[in-house]
Amino acid sequence: MITYQLEPDLTPAEFIDVLRRSTLAERRPVGEPERIAVMLQQADVIVTAREGSLLVGVSRAITDFAYCTYLSDLAVDEAFQRQGIGRELIRRTHEAAGLATLLVLLAAPKARDYYPHIGMQPHDSCWIKR
Known about the structure:
By secondary structure, the chain is an alpha+beta fold. 28% of the residues lie in helices and 26% in strands.
């Protein structure tokens, strides 16, 4: 049985572990635990999914709780994908940030087809600067 909770004190080690068990580690600084720690400390909403004590999914968001929520990380262990965990993490993250906020995310290349499936709409004017 999967349990969900707000977990603001998620440890960098657990976060890195689930990133590696998902495909998100390819695009996150998992070799820099100090940077990961700051990412977690500065997040406004962290929702976890666990099977027992095992972390199987996580969402991490930055929000103003009024207008905009940026869902910066959504990771689900590959062994637990296709069970609705990602959808539930998104729902709970949006709920925690405030349903009046606009939920925004950048899709990982392998996940581009997932988001329309759960009712999210693409936006054609996202810009990034590295």
